[in-house]
Amino acid sequence: MAWQNPNGLVQAMHSIRQAAPLRPVLQRSVISRSPIWSSSTTTSLPKNLNGKRTYATEETPTSFTAAPPLDFKDPRIRPARLVPASPSYFSGNPKFIDHLLNLEGILAANANLPTVENSQAPRMAWLKLPQFRDFVGEQVPTKKYKGLLKILQRLNRIDPELMPENVGRTIKQFVRPGNPYANKPAPATVDEMGRARGRGKRKSSSAVAFLVEGDGEVRVNGKTLVEAFPRVHDRESATWALRSTSRLDKYNVWAQVQGGGTTGQAEAITLAVARALLVHEPALKPALRKAGVITVDARRVERKKPGHVKARKMPTWVKR
Amino acid sequence: MVSSFCWSCLTRLPTASPRPMLPPTLTAQRVAAFHTSSPLLAMPPKKKAPGQQQGPKHRTATTFKMKKRKVTDRVRPPPVGERRALRKRIVLSNPNALEVADMQDISAENMVDSRLRGSILGLPVPMLDQLRAVQAFKPKQGWSIFRRPGTVTRRETVELGRLIDGISDKPEDKSKVVKRIVTGPRGIGKTVHLLQAMSMAFTKEWVVVTVPECQDLVLANTSYAPHSEKNPNVYVQNQATAALLSRTVTANQKVLSKLKVSREHPALKSPLKRDTTLEALANIGIQDPASAWPVFQALWTELTATSPAPGFEKDFASRPPMLVAVDGLAHWMKETKYRTAKYELIHAHDLVFVQHFLSLLKPGNQQSVLPNGGILLYATSASNSPSIYSLDVALERVAARQNRVYPSSPDYPMPTAFSHPDERVLAAFESSKSSVPTEGTLTLQTLAGITREEARGFMEYFARSGLLRQQVSEEWVNEKWTLAGGGVIGELEKLGRRLTVPVQV
Amino acid sequence: MVFILGVNFPERNLVKKSLESFFGIGNHTSSRLLARFHIHPACKVGELGNKQVLDITAALSDMKIENDLRRQVIDNIKRLKETGTYRGRRHALGLPVRGQNTRNQIKNAVKFNRIERRLG
Fold first, then answer.
1. Which domain of life is it from (chain B) (predicted)?
2. B-chain residues near A218 (CB < 8 A)
3. Looking at the complex, does the CB of residue B45 fall below 8 Å from at least one CB of chain A?
4. How close is the nearest chain A Cα to the Cα of B28, in Å?
């Protein structure tokens, strides 16, 4: 297509052409007008090259003026056939395209409003694809719905204080009923005996650590650190969360760990202690993240498969 | 005649078609295989690069060559005892380590000084030979990383120093006997505690009798024989006894050479002269191991004598207090590797040597077991020890009695049902209150980790010896204290050694 | 060098191993012999007392070892052969006697029956 640009209207036209059975009249009219169109695009092209994004509702400068709208109330002007209410009536997904055009219009109108970071924006549970298909009653392709979601996300990022009322209302349409993000786990607290509890997993070990303010005593399964971990490296990794924040002599640790080997157990304790430490001092989160004890290592041993020697290894090739 | 191939495999025979040039892999892959074994699933190997496939560049002989068997000249095995000596070698000095300037030696004055807690007290150089003689040092205790050997003064050390000082010098503690079993987890410093006791005893000129490794007596590596015709079920170990005598003589030569015999010893083969020193008496046993046991008994009666027999008054000097140190007690609580004539295992309590040392734990009859005063220190080992349930129960009982829980109480530790405890082991540690007021009952001393202040002193000693490049700060010491499982000194030593800059050899 | 039952043993050898060099004495018998005379298992030949050497020699001379034992074994086999038993035939053929399979993995079984039982 010679005149292809990221223009919504052109896309709509495209989809109309693809979806609807070729109507000779329309086809002809488009073809007949094509020289004019091409001339118009040539004039508007430099503007697009400037990098400014244009939207469907923006007026494209044309060299001709459209005929005045028909006033259908005038009894003299009576259409030969029924005119559809939506201009995208003849596209494959008219309702979807209506929504898309509407959102693009809103975005274009509010493009200049200040935005916030993604993490700061209120978390919204957008309709899932099947739900959206039910909502519009059309088979919307996945990719197109993703494009719609992108616009919704962008609108959602508008600073909540400056969010225009109509934007908020429009966005609400696309949110799942109920609020799945309302059920937040209760924040862990230090119990009445001053203990904070944290759990951690690594490889096939799982650990529970209780942290109380104290002077650096560590017990693992009732044993001292030396008895539990003969290797110094394991001892260091088990206490790493406290060591990296220089809190090793401020807390006592009482941990229970089971499953796996020594390395897994030690690193499961690391994670458990870090989580328990966050209960005592939430402000340590950036420091702990930097120390690498917040991130869960979700790797597990891959299972062995039939026909393989190990998880992936194939038997050696034998001639014959 | 059986066909050499499987009929179902015929499908995969190479065809006599005009395309025999195809690589066999292709044909094998195309034909549907009847067998579904996993080798068939495997991928064919990658072709080698064309350069590697080519044969030899030049014409070379292709005759078969026999490989000649290489004649390796056999190296003579090292002489007998050399490898053992290398294994047991103890290095006490590292000339590359720095000399710590103001390090004090252990002496009669500073062994009671509680201000020295946490500092390192060096062992005086003349005493090292004595300590080596009683095998107080063990390999792998880290003596070889410092300039000269020294030990950390911890709370228990000061307390022990006061005890030894009191028994030697204070009239109210004269002839007091302290009986202790030292336990604790691995690396906590039990053996070094014994070493400190020995060094203090040497400074006070006590007589030190040690069994540095209980295991040596039960491994069946030394000779044994029935004790006598009268009691054939008790066995003497002559070589082990001679070794004990030689240890005692070498370490305590200064003391023993001053003391003279105080009575007749009819058990010995040849009668002794009146002015025989105790050193000479012990040497008889060393030279003739067959008589080692009677000689040891004679020496023991001499050392525990309080008054001379009639006629021996002239040369009698009062006997010094004694320190008896035994390390690795658990090996004495089970059956040995020795066999009776009927091929049954001999219990360790049937060895006369072991019997003698275990009987010291019981209260003596009429007079205390060490009438001239002294200390019995029996240490268990956590690294080389058989697990003996009866011993665990027996030690729990000792601790319970110490806490005034008596056998009549329901809280008194009992072995669990059907555990078949060794009654002899349980009986060995039953000790009632002695009739002699100066003789203490058996107590259990459980060593724990050193405190943070003591740990700090220890780590500073590393730094001042030039082995540590870190700044020894409060926080750093606390961190190491926790990593060492709450001040386990052996682990602290490993950590300190880990931080050294490796020396290029 | 110490003579035990007419055989000369170097002093550095273990007593236990030296005893086991006799035909008919293995681990079981030798360790029992040592226990009977209160010799520890790590004892070297040189460390034995005179009395112990005499005791061992006396004990060994009472036992059926060496040629006596070999002769007994040969006689037993001979008896089996003469009575024409299956076992006797197997002995004569040098094949396994005790019902082992002979289809495969027979090397060891044949080897054990091929040892010449001559008098040493």
1. Eukaryota
2. 482, 485-486
3. yes
4. 7
Confidence check: pLDDT of B49 > 70: no
Q: How far is A248 from chain B (nearest CA, A)?
A: 6
Return the minimum-mean-pLDDT range out of A147-151, A276-280, C77-81.
Answer: C77-81
Is the model's pLDDT at B26 over the cut of 50? no
Q: How do strand B104-105 and strand A251-258 relate by DSSP bridges?
A: unpaired
User: Which value does ipTM take for this structure?
Assistant: 0.84
B120 and B221 part of one domain: yes
Task: Select from B233, B343, B350 the residue whose CB has the most chain C CBs within 10 Å, as the one to mutate to test that interface.
Answer: B343
Verify that B462 and B357 share a domain, yes or no: no
Question: Model's pTM, two decimal places?
Answer: 0.74
* Residues B221, C42: C-beta atoms closer than 8 Å: yes
Q: Which residues contact residue B374 at a Cβ distance below 8 angstroms, ignoring those fewer than 6 apart? A: B167, B177, B178, B206, B321, B322, B323, B324
Three-state secondary structure string covering B118-164: CCEEECCHHHHHHHHHCCCCCCCCCHHHCCCCEEECCHHHHHHHHHH
- Touching subunits of C (3+ CB pairs, under 8 Å) are B
Question: Chain A within 8 Å of B478 (Cβ-Cβ)?
Answer: yes
Least Cα separation, residue C99 to chain B (angstroms): 28
Q: Give the span between the Cα atoms of B378 and B209, in whole angstroms.
A: 12
Tokens (6 digits) for A313: 């290894």
CB within 8 Å: A319 and B24 = yes
pLDDT band at A25 (very low <50, low <70, confident <90, very high): very low
Report CB contact under 8 Å: B488, A319: no
Helices (H), B10-69: 24-30, 38-41, 50-53
Q: Do chains B and A touch (3 or more CB pairs under 8 A)?
A: yes
B458 and B433 part of one domain: no
Residue range of the domain that includes B460:
452-497
Query: Which of the four CATH numbers 3.40.50.300, 1.10.3210.10, 3.30.230.10, 3.30.450.20 does domain A196-291 have?
Result: 3.30.230.10
The answer to whether the Cβ–Cβ distance between B223 and C40 falls below 8 Å is yes
Does pLDDT of A1 surpass 50? no
Look at residue B28 and tell me if it is in a domain: no
Which range in A200-209, B39-48, C4-13 is most confidently predicted, on average pLDDT?
A200-209
Phi, psi for residue B466 in degrees, rounded to 5? 80, 20
pLDDT digits (tens, 9 = 90+) for B404-436: 998 899 999 999 999 999 999 999 998 888 888
Whether B205 and B332 map to the same domain: the answer is yes
B-chain CB neighbours of A319 within 8 Å are 24-25, 28
Least confident piece of the model among B321-330, B367-376, C98-107: C98-107
B24 vs A: CB within 8 A: yes
**Which residue do the tokens 């807390």 mark?**
A251
Inter-CA distances, A88 with B216, B429, C7, Å: 100, 100, 116
Same domain, B337 and B457: no
Residue to test with chain B: of C12, C38, C52, most B Cβ within 10 A = C38
Q: What tens digit of pLDDT does each residue of B242-260 get?
A: 999 999 999 999 999 999 9
Mind telling me how many Å the CA of B263 is from chain C's nearest CA? Answer: 33
* Chain mean pLDDT for chain A: 83
| Residues in chain B closer than 8 A to C42 (CB atoms) | 220-221
- Residue B116: count other Cβ atoms within 10 Å of its Cβ: 18
On whether the CB atoms of residues B320 and B372 are closer than 8 A, the answer is: yes
In which region does residue A216 sit, left (phi positive, over 0), alpha (psi from -120 to 50) or beta (all else)?
Answer: left
B500: pLDDT confidence band, cut at 50, 70 and 90? low
Q: How far is B79 from chain A (nearest CA, A)?
A: 37
Q: Are residues B174 and B221 in the same domain?
A: yes
Which pLDDT score is estimated for B23? Answer: 47
- Domain extent listing, chain A: 2-63+84-173, 196-291
Q: A61 or B17, which is more confident?
A: A61
Tell me the chain C residues in contact with residue B79 when contact means C-beta distances shorter than 8 Å.
none
